[in-house]
Amino acid sequence: MPDQITSAPLTATPLAGTDPALGAALAAARLPVADLAEPGSQFFTFALPESAGRLYGGIMLLEGHALLRSILVPEGQRRAGLGSAVLAALIEAAKAAGAQDLWALSPAAAAPFFTHRGFREVARYEAPQVVLHSRLAGLTCPISTVILTRAL
Known about the structure:
Blueprint: E1 5-7, E2 10-15, H1 20-28, E3 41-47, E4 54-62, E5 65-72, H2 82-96, E6 101-106, H3 111-115, E7 120-122, H4 129-132, H5 135-140, E8 146-151
Parallel strand pairs: 5-6
Antiparallel strand pairs: 1-2, 2-3, 3-4, 4-5, 6-8, 7-8
InterPro entries: Acyl_CoA_acyltransferase (IPR016181), GNAT_dom (IPR000182)
Keywords: Transferase
Pfam family, one: Acetyltransf_1
C-alpha cells in the first residue's frame, strides 16, 4: 500500500482499523465498528486543505474483489465534492491492491451517489459470495440494502 494517495484536493494517508479516531468517527455517524480489524481492511484519513476537519474512507479486500467499507464526510462538509474525492482515492487504492471490481452496500437513499459515479445496481445473486458473506454485510446488510458494483 502506498504511503499516500492524492486525489485532488485530498491526500489519503493510511491508518489502522484500530485507530481510536476512526472508531469514534464511525460510531458517531452510527456506522459499524465491530469489523475494523478484519484482515484485508485498508483505511485512510484525509486532511482537508483549509480546515481542521478529517474525512475517512476504507475498503476491504476479498479474494480479488474490493468492498467499500466506509466513506465518512462530516455533515457540515457534504455536497462539496469531498465524498467523490474520497471515493476516487478508494478506487485507486483498490486498483493498486489488485482488485478487479469494487462493491458497495448502500441504503437506497444513498445509491444515486454511486450510480452517478460509475456503479450499477445488481441483484443480490449477482454479488460474489465472499462479499455477501463478509462481516460488513452481516453487520449492515438488511434485505433493503442496494448492492452496487463497478469494474476497476
